[in-house]
Each structure stands twice: as structure tokens, then as C-alpha cells.
Write a structure and sequence with these properties.
Blueprint lengths: L2 H13 L13 H17 L27 E4 H4 L1 E2 L9 H6 L5 E5 L2 E6 L4 E2 L2 E5 L4 H4 L5 E4 L2 E4 L3 E5 L4 H12 L16 H6 L1 E4 L2 H44 L13 H8 L8 E2 L3 E2 L5 E4 L4 E5 L11 E8 L7 E3 L5 E2 L1 H6 L10 E4 L8 E4 L4 E2 L3 E7 L3 H10 L1 H8 L9 H5 L2 E4 L2 H26 L1
Parallel strand pairs: 3-8, 15-20, 16-19
Antiparallel strand pairs: 1-10, 2-9, 3-4, 5-8, 6-7, 6-9, 11-12, 13-22, 14-21, 15-17, 18-19, 18-21
Length: 459
């Protein structure tokens, strides 16, 4: 379920008078507008607010190509609300860093960005982002409320009303609409005060506004509940998958078959020098037919390299060159960056064949893995098992199940890392080859069901 689209639909219904029924006994919005005009004129005469640049004339009203719901009126932000941008004050980050008693929220274009030691406002007001990418992307609400004691910089418009309950409906209007027609600039989108004032509002009677807000709150609470349940289910699926992998690498996912050739016999035949044991404190007593060995004994591992960036003739060739960010914990079918055959010949970079199993060794991506669906080279932050005597998918799932273990090997610090030696010296409990195939088949049989559920939840 696309809950974001569902929220948008509810907002669209709300601002077009289709979320709750109209009541002919409600005071028309036109009467409310007359009251607002009179109150604003009084405040202007008393010097409490400044007169807006635009006068409220009928010819200035926006045009709508459809009929207004009964009792509604057309207005705009400039006529409806009181702009208090003149009270904003930016505080530089250098000054904020020196402040010691930082207890008040400091608002920017998309919400709280810091704390400061003083406040400008001490009431509930509507803030609308003045600039920034969020105006177009709408990854967060462009209209949001600040309450209590707080400070606002010059990147958020500050709006008040003669009746503060109107602010809640205006927030719905702003958050339901695309602001593209009112925004200038592309590299740095901006919603100027003049353009903000021009934003049209289809205004319901005040009583209907209350009913709309109550209904929106009701539906949004149900959607939030759905999202919480969805998140809980996704986390449960994640934990269940991990449990399946844990059972798999400990011989508890499929039964053993006494007719299978023991893993030790296979390993001796492929690698006579391999150190083998049939028991290990780390894994306890191994299942019948299993043995314990090192990752280095079951295949050949090689790390990559980065050809000199100063050599333009080393890049944009026909050989894929993978970085850790390209690892996807799945089959890697495309790699954006490429190097030339000259780079392959003249540098220490190595070509890994299709089917190579990769693992990241540096930074935040430690433990990320992938399987090449095409021949490719890698940078030095990747290690590849290029040939192996085990089922490659069993190796893949073993690495996936042990990600936390590899992360722990990397230690802390600004740039944690593991070496190829640490990987090859990692112990692995190895089943007979036939059992490896059965384990992989069972994992994939179970995972396909969970993947379908995850896809449906994220659709």
C-alpha cells in the first residue's frame, strides 16, 4: 500500500470539499473573510501589523475551472493570513556554536536545525519553507507548525491569523499542492513572500474547516497505524530471514543424508593441504558429514586496485570496474564505471570472472556482498572469491549471515577495515556438497515468499 499517495488523496479531497459533507447552516466563508478584513484593518490602524503590498480586489481573485462547494469562498494567502517575516532573525552557525544555554528550537526551511539560547516567538504559528530543494521534492511537509518558545531564521516564512484555527486548514492546502508555479530558481528553489501571498486558497466555512481537520486527523492516524504495522512486519521478515540463514549454516535447515560424501573428503581431494576439523568451539559439534575449515581453503581470494585517476587512458573503457557502493547483497548485473584494457595490463587491478563472490572490506560498507553476473574488476576495497570448491550460493549466504562478524573485525575509527587475510582466516562450517545444494534450494524457496511480501509492502 502506497501510504504517501493515500495521504495525498485525503488532502486533495479535503481542499476540494469532498472529504466531509457541507452543512447549509454553516456561516459562509465570505462572512469569515469580511471579519478577517475588518480585523486586519483594525490591527493596521493600531500599528500592530503592516499593510500588505496587495489590496484585496475582486479582479485579483484567482480563477478556478470548477464550481466551489456551497458556502466556500476563493481567497489567497496574502488576504487570509498575517505575515510576520519581519520578526525573523538569522543566527550564524559560528555564533550558535559559541552559545552555551541552547534550549530553544532554531527553525529553518524544513524544520528544527539547531538549538539557541534565546527565543523570538512564544506562540503557535505556521511556518512555510522559503527556499531549498524540499519545496519541489516534498520529502517533508513544506508547511509545519512551531509552538512554545522558539527562534526562526530567514529561510522559513512565519504566518499568523486573526483566528489561529485557520492556520491548520492553510497547512493542509500548502502540503496538498505542488508549489512549482510559485517557485523561482532551479539550483536554489525559492518561494518569495510576494509569490507566497498569491497562493490561492479555496476557503470553507470555519465550522467545515473543523470537520475537515478532524476527519484528516482520523484518517492520518489510521495510515500511521498501517505504516507502523508495515514497518514491524518488514522488521519481522528481516529477522526471520536472518534466522533462516543462521539455521542453514549450523546444519539445522535441512536434514543430513548419510549417503552424502563428507565435506572433509571433498576438501582433501580439492585442497590436500587444507586444515580440517570436525568440531570447533565456535560452532559446537558439527552435523554429521560436515567439517570446519578456513574460507581461504575453499577458494582463491583476490583484492582489487584503483588505476591512477591521473591517467585518462585508464578509464571509460569496456571492462566494468566495481566499487563497494555497487555491491547490492544480490546478483550484480550492471556496473556504471569502466576501465580500459590498458589499465588491466599495466596496473595491479585483476579481472574477476562471472560468478565471483565479492565482499566489501573498507568503511561503512564492510560486509556488503554480491555475485558477479559479468566479468569485472574491483577497487582495493573489495575482495573476490574467484573460484571455489563449494556451492557459490552457500558461500554467498554464509557471508551474508556473518556480516556483523565482519563488521566487528573491522574495528571502530573513522575508516574501519578488514584485510583479505582476515577474510581468508575466517572459519566456516562446511557441509557435504550435496547438502550445500539442498540448503541453498531451501533458503531460496523460503526467501521467495518473503520477497513477495516485502515487495507488496513497499509498493
Amino acid at each position: 500500500m502506497d501510504t504517501k499517495a493515500l495521504r495525498q488523496k485525503i488532502l486533495d479531497l479535503a481542499i476540494h470539499g469532498k472529504l466531509v459533507p457541507q452543512d447549509p447552516n454553516d456561516e459562509p466563508a465570505s462572512v469569515l473573510l469580511e471579519r478577517i478584513r475588518a480585523e486586519k484593518e483594525r490591527l493596521i490602524k493600531e500599528g500592530k501589523i503592516k499593510k500588505g503590498k496587495k489590496s484585496a480586489k475582486t479582479s485579483d481573485k484567482p480563477h478556478y475551472p470548477f464550481e466551489l462547494p456551497k458556502g466556500w469562498a476563493i481567497t489567497d494567502i496574502g488576504e487570509l493570513l498575517i505575515n510576520r517575516d519581519g520578526e525573523r532573525k538569522p543566527v550564524s552557525s559560528a555564533i550558535r556554536c559559541k552559545q552555551k544555554d541552547k534550549v530553544y528550537d532554531y527553525y529553518g526551511a524544513a524544520g528544527v536545525i539547531d538549538k539557541v539560547d534565546e527565543y523570538l516567538f512564544d506562540e503557535r504559528l505556521l511556518l512555510i519553507g522559503e527556499d531549498g530543494a524540499n519545496l519541489l521534492s516534498k520529502s517533508k511537509d513544506n508547511a509545519f507548525f512551531a509552538d512554545g518558545k522558539y527562534w526562526v531564521n530567514n529561510h522559513a516564512h512565519v504566518l499568523d491569523a486573526t483566528d489561529k484555527s485557520i492556520l491548520d486548514f492553510v497547512a493542509i492546502v500548502i502540503n496538498s499542492m505542488k508549489l512549482d508555479d510559485f517557485i523561482t530558481g532551479s539550483a536554489q528553489p525559492k518561494l518569495s513572500q510576494d509569490n507566497l501571498n498569491k497562493i490561492p486558497v479555496m476557503l470553507p466555512p470555519i465550522n467545515e474547516q473543523c470537520r475537515i481537520l478532524k476527519k484528516v486527523k482520523h484518517w492520518f492516524s489510521l495510515i500511521a497505524m498501517i505504516e507502523r504495522c508495515k514497518d514491524n512486519l518488514l522488521e519481522t521478515i528481516k529477522q526471520t530471514k536472518f534466522k533462516i540463514l543462521d539455521l542453514a549454516i549450523h546444519g539445522k535447515l535441512v536434514p543430513q543424508d548419510p549417503n552424502d560424501e563428507p565435506a572433509s573428503e571433498l576438501l582433501k581431494r580439492i585442497n590436500p593441504k587444507a586444515e580440517i576439523t570436525c568440531d570447533n568451539p565456535q560452532y559446537g559439534k558439527l552435523p554429521k558429514g560436515w567439517c570446519e575449515t578456513l574460507l581461504g581453503n575453499i577458494g582463491n581470494w583476490q583484492s582489487g586496485a584503483t588505476p591512477s585517476r591521473l591517467r585518462k587512458d585508464y578509464y571509460n573503457g569496456d571492462i566494468p570496474w566495481l566499487k563497494t557502493g555497487d555491491l547490492n547483497d544480490s546478483v550484480i548485473k550492471s556496473i556504471p564505471e569502466t576501465i580500459t584494457r590498458k589499465a588491466l595490463k599495466e596496473t595491479s587491478v585483476k579481472l574477476n570472472p562471472t560468478g565471483s563472490v565479492l565482499i566489501a572490506m573498507y568503511g561503512a560498507t564492510i560486509g556488503k556482498i554480491g555475485i558477479l553476473a559479468l566479468p569485472a574488476t574491483t577497487n582495493q576495497a573489495c575482495c573476490a572469491c574467484v573460484d571455489y570448491m563449494c556451492d557459490k550460493m552457500f558461500l554467498f549466504y554464509f557471508l551474508l549471515a556473518n556480516r556483523k562478524r565482519f563488521v566487528a573485525m573491522g574495528g571502530g575509527g573513522a575508516q574501519p577495515n578488514i584485510s583479505k587475510e582476515k577474510i581468508t582466516n575466517t572459519h566456516i562450517p562446511l557441509p557435504p556438497l550435496s547438502e550445500q545444494h539442498r540448503i541453498v534450494a531451501k533458503i531460496e524457496e523460503l526467501f521467495v515468499h518473503f520477497d513477495k511480501i516485502e515487495s507488496s509492502l513497499q509498493a
